[in-house]
Amino acid sequence: MLIFKDLFNGSKFDVFCKYTRHGKYISTMLFKRFWMAISLKNCFSYRLVSRYKILLVLSVAIMLTSQQAICQIDLKNSLYDLKSEFIRANTDTQKVRLALSISSFYLTNKVRTKAMADSSRKYIALAQALNNTVNFKDARDAIRMLQFKILLRDNRFSEADRMIAQSTGPLYCHLNFLLGRFRLEKPGSEKEDMELAEKYFLASQQYAVKKGMPNIALISQVYQYNLMVERGVDENICNQYLNQVLKKCRVTKSKQIELKLMQTKAVNDLNHYNLTGYMYKTATLAKAIGNKGIEIFCLKEIADYNLRQGKIDSAEQQLNTVLKMYTDLGFKNLQFTYDLLAATALVKGNMESGMKYSIAAVKTAEQTGTDYGINSFYNRLAGLCRDLGMKRQSLMWYRKWQEAAMRSETSFPYAAYSALAAELILQGKAKQVLKTLDSADKAFKFDPDGMFLIPQLRANCYAALGKMDSAEFYSFKIVKNLETRGIKDYLYYQAYQNQAAFYIKQRNFIKASPFVDKVLAADKGYVKAADMAALLMYKFKVDSAQGNYLSAINYFKASKAISDSIYNQVKIKQTEQLQLQYATAERDHENLVLRSKNNLQHSELEKEALNRKLVTTALLGSILITGLMWYLYRAKQKSNTGLKLQQDEINKQNKQLQLRQNEINKQNIQLNQLLHEKEWLMKEIHHRVKNNLQIISSLLNTQSSYLDNEEALMAIRDSQNRMQAISIVHQKLYQSDDLSTINLQVYIEELAQSIQNSFQNKQNINFNINIANARLSTAQTVPLGLILNEAITNSVKYAFTETRKGLISLYSSVIEGNNYKLIIKDNGKGLPEDFDIHHCTSLGLNLISGLAEQLGGQFDIQSNGGTTITVIFPIETI
Q1: How is the chain split among helix, strand and coil, in percent rounded to 5?
Q2: Hey, is 552 helix, strand or coil?
Q3: Separation of first and last alpha carbons in the chain
Q4: Which residues, at least 6 apart from 235, have a Cβ–Cβ distance to it below 8 Å?
Q5: How far apart are alpha carbons 475 and 56 in whole angstroms?
Q6: In this structure, what DSSP letter does residue 798 have?
Q7: Going along 662-705, which residue ranges are E strands?
Q8: Alpha-carbon gap, residue 653 to 139, rounded angstroms
Q9: Is the distance from CB of 45 to CB of 11 less than 8 angstroms?
Q10: Which residue from 216, 286, 417, 643 has the fewest beta carbons nearer than 10 Å?
Q11: Cβ-Cβ contacts under 8 Å for 24 (sequence gap 6 or more)
Q12: Which residues make Cβ contacts (< 8 Å) with residue 32, sequence separation at least 6?
């Protein structure tokens, strides 16, 4: 029968459900998506740490998107193909079947929106009108089934009950099945829902027994087994019931129902106990009775299980087999298999394949018109493109993802909002994000994202606001939630890695250490290659802070090796080409759709004209074809000879180009090695210069302990401060990845603090620092540091009395003409009235004047409510 023929043939993917201890369910297919959607991390950019935490919980939010599993996803058909076939159909019977398939597609493969329901109703009405002429009974029942599904989606249960009461025969039983499944798979495990589900399953079973429909009675028992599992009935009792039903199936030789029951058992075992024995048995039985759809389903589930267990090569091989089998059967919705292949590639660190399969998943979903799961595909591509530096493509995918999420969400779209929240946090609007989250918490009660997404967003907001205790609380809350869950999977270790990243960013290496070690000890399959590179870099930071320099260097090299193998320019170029190919194909597809619509509109008119010309054209065509065939035969003989010569020449040139390319690649590798060695050498030089300056400072400090002359002691301390100003420059250089410039904001703050500490008896002096965020070369930073040292030292020594509380202000800005303006001001007693800069014998002021001239700038000193020194000089272009 039309309405039931796909129930066990596997052309539709049954949306089985996982149930948590709280009764909420997670669709099996969506549950797997979170793992594949986690974006790759940039191993060496810790400024991106908070953004990557968002990515983890975004994927989880997509995974937990709630959708009632009252139907089956149509894997075989494409919406656009169905519509085209409907327009071209010649008979009303064909049009009825196609209209029903289109209506069903909207219910199974489209997101739950009013537009989806309206489109489904439209094609139901078309099928009903056409069926009035052909009077196809199976079509009448199918129309009623689709109308019933729409009632359930709209929660119109009274009307659904009335439709059941008005139905007879197999239709009565299957409407009861639909309503029972709706209650069974409804989020939450309310006792009322369980009782109603049992009521409808028993009603269908009793009716089937009464009317002599044994197969339908067995189907009802399959659903009752699912109900027992959901209610938490003892496993042994569930298995006894299962074996009883299996025995009945074998006695009645109901192979398809036996297969359905085994598939249900296999999914429950996999979801609840992580066992695959029944999945293998189900695949074997499906193959034996020729049910390719369920056979492929089982193989894909086994591949996914192997992926989650870290058996990457086995999973990849099995998924390629699944893809080929689906393709051979002519199935169009292959995006879920592509998605698993993308996850496999990313676990192996193969960015090119990960990008290829991710694009294939999105492209397939868009071409078939299937919305289910597309948000996770968009999210993965957005993150992957961003991590590869493809900002334009990343923004494109984020826009698509957010647009799709806003269309499909029936509650607050946390997942889509998170991308916007990340941008708002970067713009300094973290308080606005917190207010939005608070409002959403009050407005929406059911919150499946509470375990992962919301705590992470709050942690990022508090970190941006500088409230690190609150940020740590919410960040660690995710770890505690996952510990409570009791499952050590990829999500569990990802949370530990994010917590380690949080502490690394805070430079709290002691707290970070156990989290890093926890993830490093995990099985290979739980940590992707890019994540491993990040973890090894964290370990490098931890060991460096603890003084384990040899171990730290080894971890750094290991991290760099993994990162270089993933993020090389060749792979990035290839992924960019894949993006370009997708964009081109998408435009071609849009043009093809437009042309198809135009052609279909004119097809009826052209058909009549074509019939009139057909006879004449056929006669003339036969004459022309005969002559053309002879001409082409002669032309082909001539062209083949020429083409062979051209091909030989092309092959020769290609071989030469390949040899040249190999030589260039070898030279590039050598240049990269030399550059790496040079960077290490420069860092080592700066490190040694800094150490030598510290040694000299220590010698001067030792010498000062043997001196009683205050002026000599003061001269030694001034010299130490000057060396410290230079030493900090070299310290910043060897600690930074940028060996040519210094961040002035950080440098000046540290220098001011160092000078203040050197005057222990001047602790009543405060600093007000407002330094522009600029970077200067080493050649300019050293003179500028010495100027600051002399100016601040003079203010500390001479500007304030013993009782007066002093304030030294440091301001800077980048002014017109790319000039840097620095102001050092104190509120002390100022300069003497007879002070003349041109006749000043002070070493400090002479140094300042000379250093300002060395910088090619201007130097000015004023006394008004204290002393103000202004230095303006041009910034060198690096």
Answers
A1: 75, 5, 20
A2: helix
A3: 77
A4: none
A5: 12
A6: I
A7: none
A8: 64
A9: no
A10: 643
A11: 187, 188, 189, 448
A12: 304, 340
**Distance separating alpha carbons of residues 189 and 186, to the nearest angstrom:** 8
CA distances to 5, 78, 371 from 81, in Å: 21, 5, 16
CB 346 within 8 A of CB 36: yes
Which residues does 647 contact at the CB level (< 8 Å), separation at least 6?
none
Burial 366-387 (b: 16+ CB within 10 A, else e): bbbbbbbbbbbbbbbbbbbbbb
Pairing of strands 858-863, 72-74: unpaired
Quote the pTM value.
0.54
Place of tokens 């056409």: 130
Compute CA distances 255 → 26, 72, 699, 830, whole Å: 29, 20, 92, 101
Q: Side chain identity at 553, as an amino acid letter?
A: I
Greatest Cα pair distance in the chain = 123
User: What is the structure's pLDDT at 58?
Assistant: 37
- 338's enclosing H/E stretch is helix 335-347
pLDDT of residue 54: 37
Q: What is the pLDDT of residue 528?
A: 73
389 touches 572 (CB < 8 A): yes
Q: At 796, list the tokens.
A: 């500390």
Backbone φ and ψ of 562, nearest 5°: -65, -45
Contact at 8 Å (CB) between 75 and 365?
A: no
Q: Which residues pair with 814 in a beta bridge?
A: 820
**Which helix (H) or strand (E) element contains residue 754?**
helix 744-758
* In contact, 437 and 54? CB cutoff 8 Å: no
What stretches of 649-745 adopt beta strand conformation (E)?
A: 741-743
Angle between helices 778-794 and 710-735 (to 10 degrees): 150
Say which amino acid occupies 446.
F
Region of residue 843 (phi > 0: left; psi between -120 and 50: alpha; otherwise: beta): alpha
**The pLDDT of residue 690:** 65
Helix axes 49-63, 374-387, angle to 10 degrees: 170
514, 531 in Cβ contact below 8 A?
Answer: no
Q: What letters, b where the CB count within 10 A reaches 16 and e where it falls short, cover 242-257? A: beebbebbeeeebbbb
Tell how strand 741-743 and strand 17-19 pair up. unpaired
CA–CA dist 265, 259 (Å, integer): 10
Distant-in-sequence, close-in-space partners of 405: CB < 8 Å, separation ≥ 6 = 375, 413, 415, 416
CB 415 within 8 A of CB 56: no
How far is 343 from 360, CA to CA, in rounded Å?
Answer: 13
- For residue 778, give the nearest of 640, 655, 686, 873 by alpha carbon: 686
Q: Quick count: other Cβ atoms within 10 Å of Cβ 676?
A: 12
Alpha-carbon distance values, 721 to 5, 711, 724, 762 (Å)? 88, 15, 5, 15
**Rounded Cα gap, residues 810 and 788, in angstroms:** 9
Can you read off the two tokens belonging to residue 137?
Answer: 């009974």
State the Cα torsion 354-356-360-362 to the nearest 10°: 60
SS3 769: strand
Tokens of 423: 């941008």
User: Hey, what are 645's tokens?
Assistant: 């010569």
Q: Which amino acid is at 255?
A: K
CA–centroid distance for 205 within its chain: 46
* Side chain identity, residue 769: I
The helix (run of H) or strand (run of E) holding residue 873 is: strand 867-874
List of the chain residues with pLDDT < 70 = 1-71, 187-189, 402, 405-417, 419-420, 443-451, 524-525, 565-611, 677, 679-684, 686-688, 690, 725, 729-730, 732-739, 760-763, 802-804, 878
pLDDT in tens, 411-448: 566 665 676 677 778 878 888 888 888 877 776 655 55
- The helix (H) or strand (E) run that includes residue 299 is helix 292-308
